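Lab notebook: predicted structure, single chain.

Context: the supervisor wants predicted structures on file for every construct in the current expression panel, including those that have not yet been purified. This is the next one on the list. No modifications to the sequence; it matches the entry in the shared construct table.
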Amino acid sequence: MQTREDIFQTLKAALVELFELEPERVTLDANLYEHLEIDSIDAVDLIDHLKRQTGTRIAAEEFKAVRTVGDVVEAVHRTVTAAA
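Prediction complete. Output recorded below exactly as produced.
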């Protein structure tokens, strides 16, 4: 099972790779929309990327409630844990 730290590192790498963000900007408290300037289309790309990385599908409804990087980590962790 992936730990929250594993998920955070995967997510951070994805945000840096996909959206050319500086790694130091990607913190658990960073707001996806305000601090990292991720829009709804970017969020769909991120969900798809995370699905390929984790092997689990994250429901769009689950993703609608996320605001911060930490929220994404928790959503992915819940999905991965439920699938185990």
